[in-house]
Design a protein that fits this description.
heterodimer, A: alpha/beta, Rossmann fold, 11 helices, 9 strands, 13% strand, B: mainly beta, 5-stranded antiparallel beta sheet, 4-stranded antiparallel beta sheet, 3 helices, 33% strand, elongated
Amino acid sequence: MVSRDDFVGRDVISIEDFSKQEIDYVLDNAAEIKARMGNYSQRLAGRIMVPIFVEDSTRTVMSTQMAMLRLGGSVVDFDVGKSSFSKGETLEHTFKVIDSYNPDVVVMRHDNDGVAQLAADLIKAPFINCGDGKNFHPTQTFLDLFTIREHRGSIDGLKIAIAGDLMYGRPVHSLAEALGLKYEGCNIKFISPEQLKMPKDLLKRLKTKGAFFSEHDLEDLELIINSGDVDFLYMTRVQRERFPKGPEGDQMYEDVTSRYNLKRNIIKTPKPGFKILHPMPIFNEVARDIDDTEYAHYIPQAGNGPPTRMSLLDLIVV
Amino acid sequence: MANEKQSIRRIDDGLAIDHLDPSVTWKVARLLKLEEHDGRVSLGNRYDSQKLDGGKKGFLKIEGRKLSSYEINLIALVAPNATVNIISGGKIVEKRNVEIPGVLEGIVACANNGCVSNRSTEKFPSKIYYSNGVFRCHYCRHGFYRGDIDL
């Protein structure tokens, strides 16, 4: 039986560190907070968050800081561009100094894989990973799961197609892990260009655990939507820097983006209640004419960022 | 064979590491930093072997050297079939097989080039867990295999 005591002082590095029951507890707490947000306005009064956003972020930094402020806590105004990060100080020294200030919680996004664990090892306060390199983005996964459950009522037995850059996309790795390794009977269809398939290591783990998944080329996207057999389509963007430099890479990128472009008229016979999710920002992979349809669910999904992150802060901050 | 045996002097106190694949004998010597050892070291390679598949083996005899269990097991990283004989008073007092330790600190680099432990500006040692044939980085949790290790 999971209780609040199981979360106090914990770090949030990867979704894999949480059992299904613990994830459900976080989501239940998020639902309660979303329904009665005003009741939590003093929950973290007097507590201080240190945000370290070394890599660019808009939604994650804003919704994480809003979550802390909505709980009555404070956020240190820390500009990485003017900090010792840009002066070449080692990460170890930076984290030890931050620890010596005794913050109540530290949140970080960084462009190296594994930095989150290093920070968590060196900082006594609870630590939340807001994205480390191409590795993990657990708070995005919590909000994705919250959105799925809020719309569908449950996560077990979910049928989802996950499309785009599956090799480097942090959100899709964490989401696939959660659905495939934690929940029962989920069926995942991975849709990507050949160059950006899911990492073999992750597919092997899913296979070992008996998760249901299949891999598809971009051309199958339309067929899968109109099969009427998926509850959600989780789109991610494909970035130019994932392809080789020079004209050959330009050509490969153009070839992929011309085939990976979801338009309103492609969606003909989806499953009733079918929704499109996206961690955002959206570029050309989802056409603007989808925004006004009943299928677009990425704005409500983003809106679940603050209550989901509030839930984590509420549970882990001492 | 008789001449081969006589060509390497026996040791009184120390270690004899046997059944090394000839391709890794020098690697084991480097792993144990034998170039820094101030006692007598004998290295034999491509001697006849009944046990190893290729019919040839390498071995090391190290006078006056003691190794912890952890150090002995590190040998398994490059020579999983090695045996380590601990010698005292001219006799073998213990014979040990080697197995890769569960935790490796500062020995093996993470195979993920993007891992923070591979950043040239950082000085902290790598930390790798090993279980059931899979190495996993403590920091980035990337999984990799023995063939991916560059020692």
